[in-house]
Structure prediction request, 311 residues.
Amino acid sequence: MIGSFVVSGIVLVVAAVIVFGSGRLFEERATFVAFFPGSVQGLTVGSDVAFRGVSVGSVEQILLSMNADSVNFVDSRVPVIFEVDESLIQSRGASVNLDDPDELARLLDQGISAQLDTESLLTGRLYISLDFRPGSDLLVYGGDYAYPEIPTVASSLAAVQAKLRELADRFAGVDVEAVLDALRSTLDGANDLLNDPALQDLAGTLDEVAVNLDGTIVAVRELVERVDTSMGPVQAELTAAAERAERSMEQLDETMQSLEAVVRPDAPVVVGLVQTLEELELAARSLRRVSEIIERDPSVLVRGRASGGGS
Prediction:
């Protein structure tokens, strides 16, 4: 008899410790159910339930809704039963009575919903995020449960996973090897072009042409400076300058032909060289014409050409 009383007393003490230790005896807790599509991996019993980041409850049960009466197992959702601590909400300044059907209906009309969110990217732990999401695509299962149902919204993580699957499906038919082969071929062609001896020789030829042009310009400038003091050598200097310009023009023409073999005809360097060639040709013609005028009438250097004269 005494033993029975002792055992009963121990059981009562343990029960009291559990009840009072958990603090639930004085809590006002409302229980709800939410049906989540897809995987709930990372959500466990005891996971946090938060409203806009503020903890208001915890997950109590994670169940399965698949049974023989299910129409489509693929579309089956995971029912999660969770509790919201009203006393905790009230202690943080909010006033709400979740046991009142009218109050709950008002919250549902304003778009209250549950969404799985990531508590830690490192551990992958999930929690239930409660918030008002009016205009969102709310999912309501309507199962036969003893608890009010809170609509759910697809998680952002699920949306990212769906997008990744879509991208994977889109690129599944792409022949990656063929794309890589084409890229390698393009790079090899560019490398061959850059290392082409003809292109390298062309660079040296252009430098030589530039040096010759500089020499021609210097010679013409010196010739103009000596016009007033030296009549005799003028014609010879003009003739020599014209010949140098013609040789430079011929050398530039040969360079152009070499350049067109390795560069597109419409490339800027080709266009620039063509313009330079035309200008050199005009300069050579002008020098030749001045030489002919002076040869016919050397005195023109002193008196100048008549303004109303002929050609």
